[in-house]
Amino acid sequence: MSDDIEQAKERADDSLEYEKAQGGLQADDPLAAIKALRLEQLAVCRLKTTQEMQRMRDKTQSNKDDAAD
To answer: Are 27 and 34 in contact (CB under 8 A)?
Structure first.
């Protein structure tokens, strides 16, 4: 029984270390982890918006070029 508890503690420690290494999450500051996640989501959203706007500009320019011919 004691071995099971020790193994569970080791796994918990390993998973915490893994989380910190992957995303720099602070275990004792969950708000910082949420903030980091939301900032990452915002960055992805901004990138997608920029790409979509560029596609729209390219399409508009292509339509103008076709109309000029």
So the answer is: no
How confident is the model at residue 12, as a pLDDT?
61
Terminal Cα-to-Cα distance of the chain (whole angstroms): 82
**CA 33 to CA 52: how far, in whole Å?**
29
In SS3 terms, the chain reads as CHHHHHHHHHHHHHHHHHHHHHHCCCCCCHHHHHHHHHHHHHHHHHHHHHHHHHHHHHHHHHHHHHHHC
**pTM here?**
0.50
Evaluate if residue 38 carries a pLDDT over 70.
Answer: yes
26: CB partners within 8 A, 6+ apart: 20, 32, 33
The CA–CA distances, whole Å, from 61 to 15, 51, 55 equal 51, 15, 10
